[in-house]
Write a structure and sequence with these properties.
271 residues; alpha/beta; Rossmann fold; 8-stranded mixed beta sheet; 9 helices; globular; binds adenosine-5'-triphosphate; binds magnesium ion
């Protein structure tokens, strides 16, 4: 008997490149990279949306100085700093826990992606939660992802989880667009670089799986301070050396995208 037909991925009309920011590991800086990359792309004149697919621990509201949103007054997606934003944190209070089983998480991710009128976008960046769970699978199987960018830290322990993230995307046939290494080094005023979290892990992983190494972002207290204060560093201090790293990253991503088909509907597979 032939295998059952796999439903095609639902298109996102008007969205040229749908990119997931992922990592098997928690706390490596996915959300910070996603927010600063989205803003850096916007600073290069791209039309950009940012969807926060972290249902249990959304980060976009805090990083963009927003809280719960009254949809009757401010329609979704919410606009801030030139980006179009969606997050579970716009409908659930920051101190309220979402206690949902997998199917409901998958449903919420699908609703955030397909219901809001995103309009014409060059990039829709999706900030994924850690791990390889329901949010990742829903996105990979139902949406026409251009690909995933994996964020890792230089240490070997981060690479173990990053490899799991890579494996998951490979299994669902989503291309890995490249690796970003976050918290790569600490720059001292005299120009020397300290590597408190190890060295070279991101480049090593990129070489191992044969994808581009997209760049490294140093450690700097200003990155987290700006994120916590509701205005990511690349927007608040565009001339800061770290902001230059994000802008370079955005340029590399745009160049890599020129090599990719636009909003490609890749063949789906059953798990
Ligand atoms: N380059 C950096 N320098 C200093 N602090 C950073 C840097 N990148 C991220 N951070 C900080 O590290 C913490 C974790 O970052 P973030 O929330 O972006 O990680 P995450 O991978 O999205 O986490 P989660 O897995 O919980 O979603 C935050 O406090 C953030 O401000
Ligand atoms: Mg996050």
């Amino acid at each position: 008997m032939p295998p059952p037909a796999v439903p095609p991925k639902t298109p996102l009309p008007g969205v040229k490149h749908l990119i997931a920011i992922a990592s098997g590991k928690g706390g490596v800086g996915k959300s910070t990279v996603a927010a600063n990359l989205a803003l850096a792309l916007h600073m290069y004149g791209q039309r950009v949306g940012l969807m926060d697919a972290d249902i249990y621990g959304p980060s976009v509201p805090m990083m963009f100085g927003l809280g719960m949103i009254d949809q009757t007054k401010t329609p979704f997606p919410v606009e801030k700093f030139g980006l179009k934003l969606m997050s579970m944190g716009f409908v659930v209070a920051a101190d309220q826990a979402v206690i949902w089983r997998g199917p409901k998480v998958a449903q919420a991710v699908g609703a955030m992606l397909f219901q809001p009128p995103w309009g014409d976008l060059d990039f829709l960046i999706v900030d994924l939660p850690p791990g390889t769970g329901d949010a990742q699978l829903t996105l990979s199987q139902s949406a026409p992802l251009t690909g995933a960018i994996i964020v890792t830290q230089p240490a070997e322990v981060s690479l173990i989880d990053a490899r799991k993230g890579v494996k998951m995307f490979e299994e669902v046939r989503v291309p890995i667009l490249g690796i970003i290494e976050n918290m790569s080094y600490l720059g001292l005023p005299d120009g020397t670089r300290l590597h408190p979290l190890g060295q070279g892990g991101g480049a090593k992983l990129a070489a191992e799986i044969g994808v581009p190494f997209l760049g490294e972002i140093p450690i700097d207290a200003q990155v987290s301070q700006c994120g916590d204060a509701g205005e990511p560093i690349v927007r608040k201090f565009p001339d800061h050396p770290i902001s230059k790293s994000y802008l370079m990253l955005a340029q590399t991503v745009v160049n890599e995208m020129l090599k990719q088909p636009t909003n490609a509907a890749l063949p789906d597979v059953e798990l």
